[in-house]
Amino acid sequence: MAGTDKPDADAEQMLKVQQGDLEAFETLVDRYKRPIFNLIYRMLRDPDEAEDITQKVFVQAYKASERYRPTAQFSTWIFTIARNLSLNEIRRRSRKPRVESFDGALDPDGEPVRLEPPDVRARPASQMLEHHEFMDCMERAIAELPENQRAAILLCREGEISYEEMAKILGCSLSAIKSLIFRARETIKKRMRHYQETGQWESP
Fold first, then answer.
1. Domains of the chain by range and CATH?
2. pLDDT tens, position by position, 171-194
């Protein structure tokens, strides 16, 4: 994970953006668009919405560039914007329930998205299919976590964000972020174990 004691080259790029350097901003977009999209997609489970909100993240970041101050890692700042916009969309959906079809939806790597665990009896026994089944169930378990736990575990999965940065992004203490990740992992393990033992998905 990135350490906060290292010089933040991304913050330096953002300071260039303040001077009107569009190439510097394009550099930041190229570096962060994939991890930002991945985070938003896994929170919303909708590739089209994730694409739209990813664009909004960078539009908002550009508009706020004049107010940007390198008092923290740039990644903390940009992921905070992504997290806030994602939570706004989740809350909007909760106020306006809708029935959505995920038939034919694709994940960022082009694989079909399934929100229901597969019926293992209807599939040939092969290591590859078992792996896909496992990943399907893992993604569903993450999607059904409480809001803060889901955000914490998804940030953790990005791999380059320190616990200190995660705490700033989610607006909580270092001990709280560790607790969120621990509880999320325990919930996921419990539900995965239940499914492996019974073949039935346990709804929260």
1. 1-102 (1.10.1740.10), 114-204 (1.10.10.10)
2. 889 999 999 999 999 998 888 888
